[in-house]
Amino acid sequence: MRKTLKAIIVSIAILSLSSLRADAQTDKLTDFLSRVKLLTADFTQTKHSSMLSAPAVSKGVLTYGEGRMRWQYTSPVQTVKEFDLGSGRRYGPESFDIVWTEGNPSKAVLTPKKKDLQRVFSSIEVEMDADCNVHTVILREGGDDFTRIDFSNQRNIFK
User: Fold this and answer.
1) Residue 14 sits in which domain range?
2) pLDDT in tens, 80-126
3) In this structure, what CATH number is given to the domain that contains residue 146?
4) Which of 10, 53, 95, 124 sits at 20 to 30 Å (Cα–Cα) from 46?
C-alpha cells in the first residue's frame, strides 16, 4: 500500500511542477510534457529507514504517456502499479509549496500543504537536467527516513 501511495505521489508531484507558471524552467517542463507521446526510463528505488538494517532496493521501468503512468517493478519482486493521472485527481500544484533552484541539474522542492500528504512525507525533491529529464526524486518521510528514486536510460517519443 505504501509503495503504491509513494508511486502516486511521485507521479503527481512531477506533473504538479508542470502545472505551475512561475518561471522559464516550469514553462520548459510544461512544453516538454505536452509534446511527449511516450516516455520510458529505468529506475532504482532505494528506501532508507531506521526500521531497516540495510536500505531496501527495488528496480524497474517507468512509462508515462497519454495521461497514464506505469511503474513496473522488476526486482526484487515483479509487480505493476498503473495510474490514470487525469481521473479523480485530489492533489495538484495547490497542494504544495514549491521552490525552484535553477542550475544543471535544476531542483524543485515540494512541501505538502495538506495534512494527509504531510502524514506520508515532509518534502519531495525533484532534480532534472536542462532538457527536462528527471534524474532523481527524493521523498523525505520525516526523521532520517527517505526514499530515493534514480532514473536512467530515459527515452522519449514526441508527438
Assistant:
1) 2-158
2) 988 776 665 566 667 788 888 888 888 888 888 888 888 888 998 98
3) 2.50.20.10
4) 95
Burial of 52 (0-12, 13-18, 19+ CB in 10 A): exposed
**DSSP track, 19-37:** H--SSHHHHHHHHHHHHEE
Residues β-bridged to residue 55: none
Q: Is the pTM of this model over 0.85?
A: no
User: What are the grid coordinates assigned to 148, written together?
Assistant: 530515493
List phi, psi (to 5°) of 24. Answer: -65, -40
Task: Report CA-CA distances (Å) from 4 to 72, 102, 129.
Answer: 11, 30, 26
Number of residues assigned to the chain: 159
CA distance 31 to 118: 30
